[in-house]
Amino acid sequence: MTARTIGLLSPPLIAVVDDDEAMRHALSELLEVIAMNCRTFERAEAFLASYAPGIFDCLVTDLRMPGMSGLELLRELKARNSSLPVIVVTSSTEPESRKQVVESGAFAYLIKPVSDERLIRYLKAALARMQ
Amino acid sequence: MFHKQELPHQLEKGRPSRESGEGATDMRLADLASESVIVCDAEGVIRYWNPAAEALYGWPALATIGQQMDELFAGHDLHAGHWRQLLQEGTWQGPVQRRTAAGLPLTVSIRQTVRYGASGVPHDVVEYGRGNQLAIVRDGMSERSEPYRATAACWELDMSEARASIEQIVALADGDVIGHLKRNPDRLDQLLSRSRIVNVNEKAVRLFGGNADREAMIARPILNYWPTECRHVLAELLVAVLTQLAWRITQTRALNASGSLQEASVAAWRSLDGSRADKIYLMVNGVVGDDRSAWELHASEDRYRKLIHHMPTALWQVDARPAGEVFERLRSEGVTDISSFLEAHPELIELAKDVVRVTEVNREAVSLLHGRNAADLVKPVRYLFAATPKLANRVMVAHFEGRRNYIEQAKVFTFDGQARDVVFSVTYPTPPEQLDTTFITMLDVTERLRTEAQLQRLEADHAHAARISTLGELATSIAHEVKQPLAAIVTNAETSLRWLSRDDFNIAKIRQLTTRIVSSAHRANDIIQRIRSLAARETPERVPLDLGDVAEEALFFVRHDIEFKRITLSINTAPSLAQVLGDRVQLQQVIVNLLVNSIQAVSQPGRPARRIWVSIEAIDGGAVLFSIRDSGPGIAEDNLNRIFESFFTTKVGGVGIGLAICQSIVRAHGGCIRASNHAGGGAHFWFSLPGMSSSTERPMESIGP
Question: CA dist B382 to A46, B338, B355, B398, Å?
Answer without folding.
Answer: 86, 20, 9, 18
